[in-house]
């Protein structure tokens, strides 16, 4: 049985940092493969168990955890009766909640208790468990996040770079972006990793493959699809696709 998913948009003060909230409730156990996303995700476990597997490495998710950008598919397992609340940050959003470079959190998952004050987290978590409805849960999370915002200055050139990547569906060359922004490659990568966590190349590749997934059913030829999205050849494209989704393009389409 597919879980019930409720999606909520953030209040105005948090919209520059937060993309959305997801509240997921499972009547039965559920397994889902999650493809890489372009931003950090905060997961709060309210009921039941939540395990995930990347390659052959299987782990149980902490009660509150922050996950960085990934290159490969993640397989999630939620137990019967499980309930989780997910905060999906804007690509640059998580940077404003932590006094650190986001590159330290790329490709990793870390407990919220290693990032924020324990008493603040405990207070928020207790309020969540006592909440009677979904809107109250979102309200408590938002009040917590508003307290945690730090005054981080984000270079507008990084925001412009992200915009260019999205507009080109991830097909634009990183050298071209750096040139337009009047930055050396080294400076561009350093500034980008500090705010976003990943390298510009990794971030752009995530956008590109997500664009491929949106467009793949419009194509009759995988060779043409690979060519249009700038892959070297079809075999390279298939390897990248399987790493990203856990399936070959043919398996994905069936």
Automatic annotation (TrEMBL):
Keyword Oxidoreductase: no
Key words, A-Z: DNA-binding, Transcription, Transcription regulation
Stored Gene3D superfamilies: Homeodomain-like
Chain ranges of the HTH araC/xylS-type domain: 156-254
PROSITE patterns referenced in this protein's UniProt entry, alphabetically: HTH_ARAC_FAMILY_1, HTH_ARAC_FAMILY_2
A molecular function (GO) term: DNA-binding transcription factor activity
Coiled-coil regions listed in the entry: none
Record-given protein name: AraC family transcriptional regulator
Species this protein is from: Leptospira bandrabouensis
